Amino acid sequence: MLLHLQGLLTTDERAHIRAVLDAPDAPWRDGRLSAGSQAALVKHNEQLAHDSPQAAELRAMVLTALQREPLFFSAALPRKIFNPLFNRYRPQAPAYGRHIDGAVLHSQADGQWVRSDLSCTVFLSDPDEYDGGELTIHDTFGVQRVKLPAGDAVLYPGTSLHEVTPVTRGTRLASFLWIESMVRHDEQRRLLFELDMNLLQLRQQLGETAQTTALTGVYHNLLRMWAST
């Protein structure tokens, strides 16, 4: 399941994050320093130093935005969230070739291990600020090309092959992170999300009825059956 989270960041949050990332003293590093041996062959971008005060401040802002977004919780059912990282693509460091993320990742920021059930990219540059730079996701439904407004995010299965196409003009800034879900399997999460969204619509149309109460029970019993906490 691929999900577009619109307006995840507020206007003020976007402006502050951009000011920090665009500052002359922002500690950008070669993105290959954080990649495994296979990924390093195709990774040609820059990454904000994870141990910098700038990264710590911006991580907290992105996590706060995710935690207040009900659609994110419904779709991801997060158990753990890998501390957000920040990357930069520009013609000097333009692309990240086709790859798949590691199944279990170690966060140097807090030391936790996170299974990468879902991946999330938060776009920090508007589409007209750069050419190229599409997040391209290869899955069983074909190729999905994603290039969203600044402040929007996309959530997609961590099992997907994906890439960032070369940036030929401008600068593409983004935050990226992974989520370990309480519900490990994508198909089960998708069913729970669809049930939750349809229940929400039924309540809005009909109010609380015996049927919506019963279906809510079905949702929670399925979640109880499938969730690990």
Automatic annotation (TrEMBL):
GO terms for biological process: DNA damage response; intracellular iron ion homeostasis. Signal peptide: none annotated. InterPro entries: Oxoglu/Fe-dep_dioxygenase_dom, PKHD_C, PKHD_hydroxylase, Pro_4_hyd_alph, Pro_4_hyd_alph_FE2OG_OXY. Pfam families: 2OG-FeII_Oxy_3 (PF13640), PKHD_C (PF18331). Its cofactor is L-ascorbate; Fe(2+). NCBIfam families: PRK05467.1-3 (NF003974), PRK05467.1-4 (NF003975). This is PKHD-type hydroxylase. It comes from Tepidimonas sediminis.
